[in-house]
């Protein structure tokens, strides 16, 4: 199963982003999020994915911040239910971190929800440490934010 670099407007990627959004709405019983969810959330970054039998089954993106911090934010990490348990999230996360290093990113940050134990385990297992909620997520009780400082 090869890793793909995708255009964030790829219809298959948009379908997975929509599935992710529906899962999060159901999990948190909340449709009020105003955080950008479509391809605009990845502007200037990269979207990676895996196909299985021609169907896109996993995605993850990395969006460099436009400030001077040297940071980039992981966005849209999602594995379709039928493809879970095969380590695709771990593979995409590793590829995003490698992309960040190759592009001079010094720190990778992300947000996940407090009801997503598997995601928290994935990120902490990869060396991410919890930090205070940042940006859009500041003050959101259901959000957990993490960072990974990259060695030069």
State the gist of this model.
The chain is α+β, with helices and mostly antiparallel strands. Helices cover 28% and strands 31% of the residues.
General description of the model:
The longest helix is centred in the first third of the chain and has 18 residues. The protein has a single domain, classed as Aminopeptidase (3-Layer(aba) Sandwich). The N and C termini lie far apart (30 Å). The chain has three helices and seven strands. Strands 1-2-3-4-5-7-6 form a seven-stranded mixed β-sheet, sandwiched between helices. Helices cover 28% and strands 31% of the residues. With 152 residues, it is α+β, with helices and mostly antiparallel strands. The chain is globular, with a radius of gyration of 14 Å. The model has no long low-confidence stretch (mean pLDDT 90). β3 and β4 form a beta hairpin.
């Amino acid at each position: 199963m090869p890793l793909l670099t995708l255009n964030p407007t790829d219809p298959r990627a948009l379908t997975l982003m929509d599935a992710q959004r529906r899962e999060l709405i159901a999990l948190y019983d909340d449709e009020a999020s105003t955080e950008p969810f479509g391809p605009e959330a990845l502007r200037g970054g990269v979207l990676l994915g895996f196909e299985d039998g021609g169907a896109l089954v996993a995605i993850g993106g990395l969006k460099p911040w436009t400030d001077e911090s040297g940071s980039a934010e992981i966005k849209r990490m999602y594995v379709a239910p039928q493809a879970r348990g095969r380590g695709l999230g771990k593979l995409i996360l590793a590829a995003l971190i490698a992309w960040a290093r190759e592009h001079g990113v010094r720190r990778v940050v992300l947000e996940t929800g407090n009801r997503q134990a598997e995601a928290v385990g994935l990120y902490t297992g990869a060396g991410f440490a919890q930090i205070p909620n940042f940006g859009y997520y500041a003050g959101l009780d259901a959000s957990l934010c993490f960072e990974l400082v990259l060695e030069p």
